[in-house]
């Protein structure tokens, strides 16, 4: 796959495909910056530290069964872990369409937010317990 426009992203939360309600998705993969500098150094020496990763998603709100609220609210209120799986497109997983998977906790959930006349969107942050795995098969 060459350069492309993100129009067909696949996102599955707790085995529920919510792709048709996803407006925006961001996979954040960062590492701690651990200073490893010792006496005699003329510059800062660094090592990559622990990974801190998450999925941030904006959804079009939907309160129907097996949709956004019915899927996300129990994950937040129950504090239960769940999987999030994101692919660049809905096509099969492969070298040009990798899958990013994480076991997550939903720590930030705003089921209703907005002003009069706004589209009803829901913002969520799914914090990864461990690390995100990338697969091409």
């Amino acid at each position: 796959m060459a350069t492309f426009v993100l129009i067909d992203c696949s996102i599955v939360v707790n085995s529920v495909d919510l792709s048709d309600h996803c407006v925006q998705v961001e996979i954040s993969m960062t590492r701690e910056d651990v200073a490893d500098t010792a006496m005699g150094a003329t510059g800062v020496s660094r090592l990559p530290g622990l990974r801190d990763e998450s999925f941030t998603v904006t959804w079009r709100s939907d309160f129907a069964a097996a949709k956004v609220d019915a899927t996300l609210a129990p994950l937040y209120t129950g504090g239960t872990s769940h999987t999030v799986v994101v692919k660049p497109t809905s096509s099969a997983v492969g070298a040009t369409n990798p899958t990013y998977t994480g076991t997550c906790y939903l720590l930030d959930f705003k089921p209703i937010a907005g002003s009069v006349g706004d589209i009803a969107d829901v913002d969520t942050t799914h914090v990864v317990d461990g690390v995100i795995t990338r697969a091409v098969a």
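The longest strand covers residues 46-60. Strands lie at 10-13, 16-17, 22-35, 46-60, 82-87, 99-109, 121-128, 133-135.
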